[in-house]
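INTERNAL TRANSFER SHEET
From: sequence group
To: structure group
Subject: DUF5672 domain-containing protein

Please process the attached sequence and return the structure record in the designated field. Keep the field labels unchanged so the import script can parse them.
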Amino acid sequence: MHTRHCRPIARRLRLWLSSLTLIALLIALLHILHQPAKHVDQHHHEQHHLHHRPPLNASKLALLIENRPSPLLAPLMLHFIATLPPDWPFLFLGSHASLAAISASRAVRAHASSGKLGLARIPANMSTAGPEMISRFLTSLWVYEALLPASVEWLLLFQTDSVVCANARLSVDDFLGYDWVGAPWNPRGQWGGNGGLSLRRVSTIVDVLRNQVRPRGGEPEDVWLSERLAAHPSANVANGSVSLLFAGEVNPGEPERVLPPPMGAAGANRSSDGGGSHGLVGGIDDWRDGFYEPMGYHTGGSGAFLHSGIWGTPELREHIWKYCPEIKMTLAMDAARYVPGKCGARWT
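Return from structure group:
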């Protein structure tokens, strides 16, 4: 009798233990699946991240042309990629040496693999060796009709002495309504701006180049093109005041103004209409008050030319270091020059 009673109990016990084991295995599996991976293949992680980017806009292209190898190429390119709106694709045209320099960066190679960044040689039939050759390159109809993708309508051209500021409240997309915009030569002028950091409408430039040819040794490409775009019947070129919002180089623009919050209202909750320049908030943005803050900067001379209107006082320079610290990448800076006394270049 005792044995007969134990057998059903033993069977039930075995079934119960099996169920517990299965439940424990399921719990362990769920726990493993919800744990963050501690040993993730780096390449797989990068590809997963890059494949989840917003789609690229084929009508836009940011272009850097540089035949000189430089350690600046990769960090500058990566900064522009991070700062421009995410739908902008990029193209780097370089020499064998400059392509090797920029491709040494793993982050650059990851963007190239994702399709965000194109890396290509400067065509053999073209040259960028010096200002005249660059002007010939950028006024060649072949470049716009054959070299650039046919879908490109807006071309953001930048050089190694230019930068877009991460703290800027304006985006390059805010200027897409213009056929040409760059740091203005005349802040009160109706057209024209430096090409070293410039936004250009390709279709209008193509129309100009189909009807006119820049003479060899003529005006620099940015002067020659912007002058003809200003005379084009359908072009909309940015005037001096708009261009100053886009980029600073020689002439300063209007300083930012921070207004105090209205009585009885918290400054942080204020609408942009109730604030100062672009809705600056009193108590938060006070450090911006009284200073010119363009979307980006172009210095010229590979970072060697700093004009007094932008850079001429310690206060102006100190504010730029706060507002746009990334511009330090583009400048030939040696901190030892700013140390007083007989302190040498080597510090201990």
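Handover comment: The two ends are 92 Å apart (CA to CA). The mean pLDDT is 84.
Transfer complete.
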